[in-house]
Design a protein that fits this description.
Length: about 350
């Protein structure tokens, strides 16, 4: 008896759509940390302020107020396209035939393949979150936190668009392409804090709870070693040290800086230039994942007011599609429509790049 693929697809989506939403959301640190917004518009519309000049200052009591003609806010109308992410799966037809033409039983048989496909989908999305402009995919953090590219249609190489630039602290030397990397130090992190403060008026010291540090395992190991080591002079006078066995390595459990937690993420590339590494300090309120949630009643609102007018959602909405008969296999894929967005790249965080990774 032929397999009723339409019925199986309907059952699979009914059974697995909500579990897949949670499964993808929890599969790795970055996807779990990102706020998701259910956006309904045809594109993801952002609202950007490029400059603000309103002649602020004191005036003499009773004086006339005159305008220079330049008192205004310059706005940008950035927008990003959706990206479609899929993960394919295939199941042997003989196993399906043995179950009979029962959509519920067939759906359960497909569960393992569908869940594994969803996990691979989550891993690919998480890797692309940290990348640059991915072909047909996400505009990743490397592109958002940049000052020399076009983001969401705004050319940030133009001086008038400087307010839309991301914060970069390049500790390498030699000019592009960077050929030199620098060892991580607390001084470098303090300088990153200072640069972010100059751009935004606040930094790690003022609002540590807003930031999360993301880096590679290599940079994390270097940071932990830097914070663990005690010089021998200090060891010789430390009353709590067993001098017969002291190595100077106390070991760290949780790792952070000035109240900011650090997370190592295996999806973050070990290097993106010549032997370089990156340490991101991200404001997770300023970088979000837009998820397409069809709602005709809200589409125009999300277009006019921007994606930030959309409600937050629990996870990434997915659906399951079958490709029809492909020989002795029933093939299909799990898909979602998403895009990484920041309505304020200047406040999204700061990246320290060209740290020595090994």
């Amino acid at each position: 008896m032929p397999i009723d693929q339409a019925a199986v697809q309907a059952v699979a989506n009914r059974i697995f759509q909500e579990p897949l939403r949670d499964w993808i959301n929890r599969s790795n640190p970055m996807l779990a940390a990102l706020t998701k917004r259910g956006v309904s518009s045809d594109r993801i519309y952002l609202k950007g302020t490029l400059s603000s000049a309103h002649g602020a200052g004191p005036i003499a009591d009773g004086s006339d107020v005159t305008l220079a003609g330049t008192e205004a806010t310059a706005y940008a109308a950035p927008a990003l396209d959706w990206s479609t992410y899929i993960a394919k799966f295939a199941v042997n037809k003989r196993a399906l035939e043995a179950m009979g033409n029962q959509p519920g039983a067939l759906g359960n048989l497909l569960q393992s393949e569908i869940m594994n496909a969803a996990k691979d989908l989550a891993d690919k999305i998480a890797a692309d979150v940290f990348a640059g402009n991915v072909s047909n995919g996400l505009v990743g953090i490397q592109s958002i936190l940049a000052d020399d590219n076009t983001y969401a249609g705004v050319d940030r190489t133009i001086a008038g668009n400087a307010n839309w630039r991301g914060n970069i602290y390049d500790v390498g030397t030699g000019g592009p392409p960077v050929t030199t990397t620098t060892e991580l130090s607390t001084g470098i992190i303090y300088e990153a804090d200072s640069r972010f403060f100059l751009a935004n008026g606040y930094g790690f010291t003022e609002r540590p709870g807003m930031f999360t540090g993301f880096t590679t395992r290599q940079i994390m190991n270097k940071y932990k070693s830097m914070m663990e080591t005690i010089d021998l002079a200090s060891l010789s006078t430390a009353h709590f040290v067993n001098r017969a066995n002291a190595t100077g390595q106390l070991g760290l459990g949780s790792v952070g800086f000035a109240g900011i937690p650090f997370i190592r993420d295996r999806n973050l590339p070990a290097s993106d230039l010549s032997n370089s590494g990156r340490l991101y300090f991200l404001d997770m309120n300023q970088i979000e994942l837009a998820v397409l949630e069809p709602d005709p009643g809200k589409s125009l609102i999300h277009q006019v007011q921007g994606y930030t007018s959309a409600d937050t959602v629990d996870g990434i909405r997915t659906s399951i599609e079958f490709l029809g008969n492909k020989g002795e296999q029933l093939q299909g894929y799990v898909k979602c429509y998403i895009q990484l967005v920041s309505a304020n790249p200047k406040a999204a965080g700061i990246v320290i790049r060209n740290l020595k990774a090994n």
